[in-house]
Amino acid sequence: MSAASDEATGAWLVVGLGNPGPEYAGHRHNVGYLVVEELADRLRERFRKHGTGRAEVVEGRLGVPGSPGPRLVLAKPRSFMNEVGGPVKALATFYKVPPARVVAVHDELDLPFATLRVKLGGGDNGHNGLRSMRSSLGTGDFHRVRAGIGRPPGRQEVSDFVLSNWSSTERRELPFAVGDAADAVECLLTEGLERTQQRHNS
């Protein structure tokens, strides 16, 4: 699929935020990866390395056979969280996707585990991935699917909490939370922000 065809069909770029490598795979900070992997499974596609480097992508279209929906590019940047903006900017440029059609799926400390908020624009709220994206895209006016992970217990440092594995209780509920977030992404792309907020904002 060429960049020109993406421009004509108005592709969306859905970016799962996380840190690359097996040692980070089970961390709370990587929930964005899990959501785009779920979406790729629904499309029955596998991630592949993109020619721009530092990202893996899946290209597809939502909808059912005979009634295709929006074209989308799912992305897993292969840079660390605080440098994710560079790969996102490179993909947005390649596919000619404006910031308003970029969706960042990320962990959110200020929401309880397994709750969701979907929004357009805003600050980074201390999230290094969002800060990097804002800097590289030159704007914060992209969509966010905020997957709640809750606050650290007791006096645990935030940095240690987000880079720790899910609890056993959370692991049992995690597939449902990831599925809900993937549903929210699909709703956003097919039915718009207002309807998605009505249905999915916890």
Based on the coordinates given, report the CATH architecture.
Answer: 3-Layer(aba) Sandwich
Query: Which percent band covers the strand fraction?
Result: 15-25%
> Based on CA inertia axes, which overall geometry fits?
globular
Helix content: 25-40%
Radius of gyration: 16 Å
Q: Could you spell the SSE succession in H and E letters? A: HEHEEEHEEHEHHH
Number of strands: 7
What is the topology, as strand order, of the major beta sheet?
A: 2-3-4-1-5-7-6
Average of the residue pLDDT scores: 89
Structural class: alpha/beta
CATH topology: Rossmann fold
- CATH class category label: Alpha Beta
* Total domains: 1
- Note the main sheet: 7 strands, mixed
Please report the distance between the alpha carbons of the first and last residues. 36 Å
